[in-house]
Fold this protein.
Amino acid sequence: MTALLLRNIRPYGGASVDLLIRDETIAAVGPSLPPPPDATLEDGLGCLLLPGLIEGHTHLDKTVWGSPWYRNAVGPNRVDRIENERAWRRQGRHDAEAGSLALARAFLVNGTTRMRSHADIDPEVGLRHVEATVRARQALGGAMEMQIVAFPQSGVVTQAGVEELMDAALRDGADVVGGMDPCAIDRDPVRQIDALFRLSQRHAKPLDIHLHEPGEMGAFSLDLILERVEVLGLHGQVTISHGFCLGMIPAADRDALLARMAKTGTAIATTAPAGTPVPPLAICRAAGVTVYGGNDGIRDTWTPYAQPDMLDRALHIGLRNALRRDDELDWALDCVTSAAAKGCGFTNYGLAPGSRADVVLVDAETVGAAIVDRPVRRLVIAGGRIVARDGAMVTG
């Protein structure tokens, strides 16, 4: 057994305590813990202690992180971005595995120890992006717990063979059934939803459905999805990513949908984009709906923006939802910690004894200060191992 004792650390900015890690697990938390004879001691210098941060919605396979700058001249619509990305991939200059690994390591340095990443599946790319993301996950050697979503960005039922490809991906390494815009992409919401839930039941795996569709169209798709969740009893097994319609429709319609989401445990993954209506965080929380955060694409052919830093994403969630008080900033942190663990289904999470030893030390006075200042992470521990120190990976 190996032991690591962190001295003088402040969980969520509270009173100073010690934290004992044995192997991959938090063994004890409390003031002035006696050091075991075999323990390595680490002085936390009064830093803020947080559980490992969670990226709940990203696309590792698309990134050009670590590559030369991509000059973006894409059109304004989503279909323009999809077609532009396809054309760029055909040029053969994109290495999905190298990009995925580079970006995942950058996340790890900034304290992200768990992640949900979507990987494209279509007749052209086949399973290559899923396989690349699986290899990147393996290369991290267990330092990051990563869920991979089989993501049919160009449709399920209008693209020949996609359901079969998703079936193979879910059998061979993908963890979550993905979907996208049942009305707008496949133009046949019932057939798409049939296919997605069929795959979910066949493989006993959860679903994460992108829903960019605006207003009444999005509400219609969401109603169909929730109806299927209710009929099949898939409580806590579905995430609606984006859910922009919930920021557009009348309050009474929104609240009715949120009540059903709360009852079925259907979560929302938000990226809090600046230019699009979003599900209102305070109202969703009050309704009992789990809301968690993600960056979506980072430095890819779709966008030059975003950083592999979940404190930065918490800042954007706070800004987009006009969170100003310190207790409200706690909500923003929750979106990239406990709520994300619940929404994604990550277990053994947190700072209590028995949890997997994923912790982050931040030189900040409070949670709010950590989100606003986003200082370099003093120490990142994943699965009981020190993996990064002062913004750099630890070799070995």
Observations:
- Residues 53-344 form a domain with the TIM Barrel fold (CATH 3.20.20.140).
